[in-house]
Amino acid sequence: MSKRQNTAEEEAGAIDLTPMLDVVFIMLIFFIVTATFIKEPGVDVLKPEATTAELKAASILVAINENDEIWIAKEQVDDRLVKVTLERLYAENPKGWLVIQPDKEASIEKIALIADAARRIGIEKVSVATEKS
């Protein structure tokens, strides 16, 4: 008889973790859905220096290396496909903005090409990444 009483007492003192696990999984799903993922350009560049540089997060990163090659989302993109690629990325995150990361040796024509394509798509927030001097 004493065995039965001990088992009943143990069951009464046990904590049911199922509701807590449900809450944890719901929070995990919430954070995954609401997180913004940064897309890397795919190439490292040496940014030019500027005295007014400030740190900002971006949703679309475009890199231009020293050979004037344009890199978006870890892929080299031809000049003619820049607008199409930016349209696709902007459709994924219409509240985001564009950051152009040119190398010190990159030509201003490539920067202008990307900025012009972004403006024609409707991306109003465009900035150029620099190193603070």
- The counted number of beta strands is 7
Give the second-level CATH assignment, the architecture of the largest domain. Answer: 2-Layer Sandwich
Strand order of the largest sheet: 4-3-2-5-6
Instruction: Give the H and E element order.
Output: HHEEEEHEHEE
Distance between the first and last residues' Cα? 81 Å
What structural class do you assign from the helix and strand content?
alpha/beta
> How many helix segments?
4
Strand content: 15-25%
Uncertain ranges: none
CA-based shape: elongated
Instruction: Count the domains.
Output: 2
Largest sheet: 5 strands, mixed
- Mean pLDDT, to the nearest integer, reads 80
What share of the residues lie within helices? 40-55%
Radius of gyration from the alpha-carbon trace, in angstroms: 25 Å
CATH classification class of the largest domain? Alpha Beta
Query: Can you tell me the CATH topology of the largest domain?
Result: Nucleotidyltransferase, domain 5
Structure description:
This protein has 133 residues and is α/β, with parallel strands linked by helices. It has two domains: 33 residues; 84 residues, Nucleotidyltransferase, domain 5. Helix content is 41%, strand content 17%. It is built from four helices and seven strands; from the N terminus they run H-H-E-E-E-E-H-E-H-E-E. The strands form two sheets. Strands 4-3-2-5-6 form a five-stranded mixed β-sheet, covered by helices on one side. The protein has a two-stranded parallel ribbon with strand order 1-7. Strand 5, helix 4 and strand 6 form a beta-alpha-beta unit. Helix 3 crosses helix 4. The longest helix has 17 residues. It is elongated, with a radius of gyration of 25 Å. The mean pLDDT is 80. This is Tol-Pal system protein TolR. InterPro entries: ExbD (IPR003400). Keywords: Cell membrane, Membrane, Protein transport, Transmembrane, Transmembrane helix, Transport.
